[in-house]
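Predicting holo structure, manganese (II) ion bound.
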Amino acid sequence: MELTYDNLLVEANTHRNDIDKNHLRMVFDYANEKHLGQLRKTGDPYITHSLNIAHTLAGWGLDQTSIEAGLLHDLPEMSGISIEEIEKKFGVELADLVDGVNLVGQVRLRGSRDMEFLENLRKMFVHMAKDLRAVLIRLADRRHNILTLYGLPIIKQRPIALETLEIYVPLAERMGMGKLKSELEDLTFPYVYPEEYKWVTEIAGPHFKHSIENVPESINRIRLQMSKHGIVAQIDGRPKHKYSLYRKLMRPEINQDIGKIHDLIAVRIITKDAASCYSALGVLHQYWKPVPFLGISDFIAQPKPNGYQSIHTKVFDHRGNIIEIQIRSEEMHVQAEFGPAAHFAYSIAKSSGASTDKLEEGTSFKVGNKFDWVKQLVGWKDQMFSEKEAIKDFSLDALSHHIYVFSPKGDVYDLPENSTPVDYAFNVHSSLGFFIQTAKINDRIATVDAKLKSGDVVEIIKTKKSKSPNKNWLRFVKTHKAKLEIKKALEKVGGV
Ligand code: MN
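Done. Tokens:
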């Protein structure tokens, strides 16, 4: 279905009550006029692209300026309209945002991992720390470009899909935009890994069929139990996304055995508030017993670093099959799907009005310290040994998949995939790294270079006195922080 201006207005009004429709119309008419006669590679009028992006942004509940910047974002490149012209016509805030979207858009991978790419990437994060909206608009832009990727010559499709999977997907993930992340993964999967896509589709087919035949009955039974106990909840089940299934199959403990995957259909219980989540869990566990050792994860009490909250539990259903059930409140659900966009309050704290300090604190985004990592990444410029090396670490930290591990006290730490107890120690506190005797993972003694997994509880057994770090640690540490601290310490004792 082709979107129209009226669709956009309806979507914007559905999510906000402060839309100035005359202004929105004016911006749309301007974009429409300036894109007139231009076509997308799919053969559609160019304005369909701008409208689609604006519609997505409206659906995320973003402010009017973001929606309008979505409509105007390609005018500089496509129609030679300058930022000054946009400023003259629509004011400085909108012009700045269109400028920001174009700056962020310069990040290109296209098969190269050179310095230019990494510098551009860093620029993107610098910009992100100032105004998150430019990045959100780029994400919406990328989503539509992938949806219409079929319009491009085959030789151009894979590089763009790969760039999306390597840059924009991790970005969406770390921002806690779960819905967009899965969407982009599933859209790019067949372009990037066609053979693997075929394999997963083939082996998953019969298992999905089995789940689809049996899960509705399980859902009905849960529904009945909840209403019996007076718990108001919405219960549904949806098939696991293919790319996320693929990644899970490739985990060493799963070893490509689809029989070990219990959330082919993710069953969700969505309640009114956090307290009802625990009531629902209680009712569920009285009715169906939790699976020993697979256990439950309480991400409500201990949210994931990107803000994700839910209780996950695995139970034996009435047939003795293991199913995974996620329990969360409506608010947590919206947060999990849309991330920071869910709570945007830009109409109050406009980027132009808020002070730089406030922007750096993140108060004007209302996303609080969940975005510490953006500031951390941006701050790296000041603490580099060699620029080249630091920038390489930067892309690794920013774009690799992340895991979360727990301290013995239950604090959550966010680390890049394949991080080790040494990375953990230096990220908890720079001094802890200098007291490493050995480590325990989930209460078992482990080597200091063991690869950590999400959910691991990591404990550092400390030496009595601080000691110089081992030079060999540099061979396996993954985080910039650990590398930096180890090098600094070794330099002091003349070890490097
Ligand atoms: Mn575009």
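Strands lie at 233-239, 265-271, 296-298, 311-316, 322-329, 402-406, 412-416, 436-441, 444-446, 458-462.
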